[in-house]
Amino acid sequence: MSQPAYSVIGTRPIRHDGADKVTGRALYGADFQMAGLLHGFVLRSPHAHARIKSIDTSRAEAYPGVKAVVTAADLPESSDRMVDIGEGETPLSYVRGNVLARGKALYRGHAVAAVAAASLHVAEEAARLIEVEYEPLPCVLTAPEAMLPGAPLLHEDLHTHELGEKTSTASNVSEHFRHVMGDSEAGFAEAEVIVEREFSTSTVHQGYIEPQNATALWNNDGRVLVWCSTQGSFVVRDATACVLDIPVSRVKVTPMEIGGGFGGKIPVYLEPVAALLSKKTGRPVKIVMTRKDVLEGTGPTPGSFLRVKMGAKKDGRIVAAQAYLAFEAGAYPGAMVGPAGMCVFASYDIANQTIHGYDVVVNKPSTAAYRAPGAPNAAFATESVVDELAEKLGIDPIELRLMNAAKEGTRRADGPKYRRIGCVEVLEAMKNSEHYRSPLGGPNRGRGVAIGFWFNVGLPSSCTISINADGTANLVEGSTDIGGTRTSIAMQAAEVLGIPVDRVNPTVADTDSVGFTAVTGGSRVTFATGIAAYEAAQDVVRQMRERAAKLWSVDPDTVEVDRGQYKQNGHSMSFADLAARIGETGGPVVGRAAVNPKGVGGSFAGVVVDVEVDPETGKTTILRFTSVQDAGKAIHPAYVEGQMQGGSVQGIGWALNEEYWMSKDGAMMNSSLLDYRMPTSLDLPMIDTIIVEVPNPGHPFGVRGVGEANIVPPTPAIANAVSHATGVRMTRLPMNPPAVMAAIWSKG
Amino acid sequence: MHSFDYAAPDSVSAAVSLLAANPGARLLAGGTDLIVQMRAHRREPGLVVDAKRIPELSALTFDSGGGLTLGAAVACWRIYGDAQVRAVFPSLVEVASLIGGTAIQGRASIGGNLCNAAPSADATPLLIALGATCRVVGPAGERAIAAEDFCVAPGRNALADGELLVSIHIPAPRPGSGAHYLRFIPRNEMDIAVAGAGVSLTIADGVVTAARVALASVAPTPLLVPEAGQAIAGKPATEETFALAGEAAKAAAKPITDMRGTIEYRRHLCAVLTRRALTAAARQAQGVH
Ligand SMILES: Cc1cc2nc3c(=O)[nH]c(=O)nc-3n(C[C@H](O)[C@H](O)[C@H](O)COP(=O)(O)OP(=O)(O)OC[C@H]3O[C@@H](n4cnc5c(N)ncnc54)[C@H](O)[C@@H]3O)c2cc1C
Q1: Most buried among A27, A120, A661, B199, by the most CB within 10 A?
Q2: Position A659 pLDDT exceeds 70
Q3: Which of A619, A672, A733 is most worth mutating to test chain B (most B CB atoms within 10 A of its CB)?
Q4: pLDDT tens digit sequence for A103-159
Q5: CA A612, CA A441: separation in Å to the nearest integer?
Q6: What value of ipTM does the predicted structure carry?
Q7: pLDDT for A98-112, tens place per residue?
Q8: Does the distance separating the beta carbons of A737 and B184 come in below 8 Å?
Q9: CA–CA min distance B43, chain A (Å)
């Protein structure tokens, strides 16, 4: 298929926010200053599970320099209802309960009270004078444990939603769902080779570099002004309004620059607390988390227990698959096991499937999204089993995947049929890569491959574009910029306007200044906000044609536009020349668009990885790593590669060392970046990338989101590689040196 | 962080008086342990006494016999930045380059590493292997403590109230000797030893004449294992010999199971690291690179 020739799309311009970021001038939430600013400190539960019998704040309030103390008693007590704050519906009581614990602390690190003072150190010392009387309760830390009859209950009023029906069983299982397609038992009866294994993965954190922060001012006019680090300023606005029980119009959120989120900066933690402290003091209050707060008090991604069984014919056709998925939601329901159930066999065309999913609450922080939430856990199990099937069948692991790959028209067990997807193209790019074709060489080495899928989402976005007389355009949008999206959005507008991208000046605006825009999440920004910018630019072009028509006294419909050149029957003017005359042709030109696009294109990603395992220490070294992903169309290839490399690195950390190391009584023992071992640059090879482009018919330039699918295949690819290097199948994450050594010993 | 007083005396005697008059006061060298601990409320001294204005604590000198006197607060970068240290004690240079990263090494001292008394301290096993002694001054005068006797429990050293570590003396290396410290960490930097082995040995005519082995992270304190040295003295300097020392180290280790590793795994690492460290030290002793 011949690709259209673009002038801006597919190039690699420097980012609009680049100068501020490299000079340190970009303002992050912790940099925020304002006259009269107070500092807040949050007191957190030392217990994983405890009844809060009383809280006495009097000694803290009397401490010199303290301006206010708040607890859950300061939150409004409006009746419970379902609220949509970012990624699906949640009961308001859960959102509020996680902001400040009421009645019970459900995890160690659960916020219990907060203090505002002129200095952070004073606030912290005063917080230690708050007397909280706890009645410690037994805690449960893993899904299998929490599902046992008689397990300590986190929420006495939580009743299992069993296959769509509300039951009266009080349990830690908030939901059990099932997807069935065909007849998996009949499929297994027909299969000639069957592999079944159990897997587990630990709780891991997104590990964004910038801790959560928020400044709030409850202004004298009754409006609440918030400055914070978030993936969605409208989410913060709506959630803060819900928690405080005030209309959304009373909250204005100004997003500051954001130092990463990966899904973890969708929930609100600090904003309502800072607002309450501001309400009591009449002054702006800033709260910044420490790294320990981030690890213990914000949402990591679920630990999980999985069982996957797959059966194939000798010729390699996979005929049956079953999955059992139990995910730890943390303190409140919502473990992202739903998407895991939709993704677990999403890369394959398998006629007979049964999938069971369980959403289980445990005494750990309430989990949040993390890059393709649920999918990496599920793929770890499936892709390991597929690897073992390939071994048993004596078929090359990429060939086996190609033989069974999902295509346009393939139906998933959860219902939908695929539109045009790039699963086969990704596998072919892996197979044809220089990496896969080169020999592995050397002892104690192994090569692994895996693929993975993520849906991506659409959701609403808004954009306006105002034309300046000097031929430039001011673009205003509402998607907080995490991966360079100001530029990839501006590029789409520039392509339509027919001007260089440095003539478009993008701004991420506050919630008063731009139309509703959903979160920066679900790999949606370049897709959905990109469509908003595309439509707004089309609106500008339409108006500019009218201006040209006016100058030439012709019918606007007869004016042709080609790459920013406006023409009609011998007349010709550039965009810049027309812009210079907008004053005389009718005044300002403002294009606008508000979209809610449905044509989302899911993305497939694959990994080829070579490892070497030290047989005496069990330490794994990543020798070579190639990430392959279908971008649909890479608007800015360097940023696509950046996403692929970032997802790969996070996957490497997840595979090898990252985990919440919990004491028996539910304390995270490694809540620092020294002990929560994310990979450093010294632990990684260069991550090679191969961008595949199978255009998404639902986007004018063919964009699929690229932020997430790349984190799905790394953990199983590395597990497969380590298994080949050691000769032992690795079924638990992380595969840290003691675990690999234990596996080697188990061989005898 | 809690509020505390701060003093920066310019002599050992003034520091001793301050420490003696303020029980619970802590000396501040680089602060890369102390300040982290204070922020986490793990130590809450009422007075912090800065060591960096006391000349003796910041001095690095060689005596005529070739021994090194290292002021307790000398930062790592000064150790690897010193040409004579690089020539005489390459193992010390390696350890100084291992602690933290460049920024940490700009502040962190070997004296602080020792005084902090972490079982996992990377410099301490090497100091023990090199036969270092610690010069301590307090209200009752001066005394010397062998490096292997300096730590008494996790986070606790042998200093009495009012005492401070002034300097560490490392004797001149014997001809034909080599030393090495090797730790195992899951990452390649920025990590705490799961286990570590500091070794020194002397070789004459291909035979080990003397050896010292000390371990990190496998006991409540850094641990000297005399049996490991004894096991190989008089034997040929080969991998098989060094493996014997490894087995002795493994037998002497008393680790716990925690987030860094299991008892079984750590004891196994003691054998591996001791053997590998002795192999590296032997190469140095025999001038092989
Ligand atoms: C990011 C990071 C990475 C690190 N990496 C490593 C590593 O790889 N390996 C490792 O072993 N350590 C590591 N550490 C710990 C620390 O840097 C070292 O232990 C360092 O050597 C401590 O030296 P310091 O001068 O900073 O000690 P300080 O923090 O100043 O002092 C440590 C303790 O000793 C006491 N003290 C200091 N000097 C004296 C004295 N003269 N007399 C009496 N008491 C004294 C202090 O009161 C304090 O209790 C790391 C720390 C950080 C923050």
Answers
A1: B199
A2: yes
A3: A619
A4: 999 999 999 999 999 999 999 999 999 999 999 999 999 999 999 999 999 999 999
A5: 10
A6: 0.94
A7: 999 999 999 999 999
A8: yes
A9: 14
Mean pLDDT for B221-243 is: 98
Q: Is the CB of B50 under 6 A from ligand 1?
A: no
A675: closest chain B residue by CA: B191
CATH for the B55-170 domain, from 3.40.50.1970, 3.40.50.620, 3.30.465.10, 3.90.10.10: 3.30.465.10
| A32-137+209-260+265-297 placed in CATH 3.10.180.10 | no
pTM of the predicted model, to two decimals?
Answer: 0.97
A556 prior amide bond cis, ω within 30: no
Average pLDDT over residues B173-178: 96
State how beta strands B156-157 and B60-62 pair. unpaired
For the stretch A734-743, pLDDT in tens is 999 999 999 9
Element housing A264 (H / E): none
- Please give the CATH superfamily to which domain B177-285 belongs: CO dehydrogenase flavoprotein, C-terminal domain (3.30.390.50)
Atom 3 of ligand 1, nearest CA residue: B100
CA of B28 to the centre of ligand 1 (A): 9
- pLDDT > 60? residue A2: no
Does the beta carbon of B218 lie inside 6 Å of ligand 1? Answer: no
What percent of chain A has a predicted confidence (pLDDT) above 90?
97
Mutate to test the interface with B, among A291, A621, A736, A746 (most CBs of B within 10 A): A736
Pocket test for ligand 1, best of B36, B57, B77, B113 (most atoms within 8 A of CB): B113
> What are the domain boundaries of chain B?
5-50, 55-170, 177-285
CATH architecture group of domain B5-50: 2-Layer Sandwich (3.30)
At A86 the pLDDT is 72
Cα of B24 to nearest chain A Cα, Å: 19
What is the phi/psi pair of residue A685, to 5°? -85, 175
Q: Chain B residues with CB inside 8 Å of A735's CB?
A: none
Chain B, nearest residue to A682 by Cα:
B188
Q: What is the pLDDT of residues A224-250, one digit of tens each?
A: 999 999 999 999 999 999 999 999 999
Q: Do domains A18-25+458-595 and A32-137+209-260+265-297 have the same CATH topology?
A: no
CATH number of A304-456+601-747: 3.30.365.10
